[in-house]
Design brief:
This protein has 129 residues and is mainly beta. It contains one helix and eleven strands; from the N terminus they run βββββαββββββ. It has a single domain (2-128), classed as Cathepsin D, subunit A, domain 1 (Beta Barrel), CATH 2.40.70.10.
Length: 129
Amino acid sequence: MTFSFKREPESGLIIVSVETDGKYELKMVLDTGATNTTIDSNALYLLGYDLKDNIGTVEIETANGIIETEIFEIGSFSSLGHTKDNFQIQVYDFLAHGVFSDYNGLLGLDFMEGMKFCVDTSNNTITLT
C-alpha cells in the first residue's frame, strides 16, 4: 500500500495522520531515527486519557540528553493503513520542557515493527508491505 504525505517546506519534516481509538486524529512527524513513538502529554489529556494512568516510566536518550517519559497503552493506534491495538507509547510534556510544536508527537520505528517500508522523498510517498 502506498500513501502520500506532506512535507513541511522549511524543515522537510514528513507529516502523517494518526487516528487513536478509532475517533481522534493527530498530526505527527514520521521520525525514522526515533526508536519509540512519543506524543505530547497535553494531546494525550485532550484525547481523554488520565495522565495518572501511566503503566511505567522509561529513560530515553534524545539529541538534548537523557529524559524520562511515561508509558501509556493506547487501545487503538492507526496510521498509513495499519492499526496496532494496545499500542504502548511514550508520553512527554513538550510545553513544560520548552518544546513548541504544531504537531502532536513523533511516529517512531516501533510502529513500523514487522513491516517493510520505503520512504520516497522524490514523490512524497510511503510504501508499506
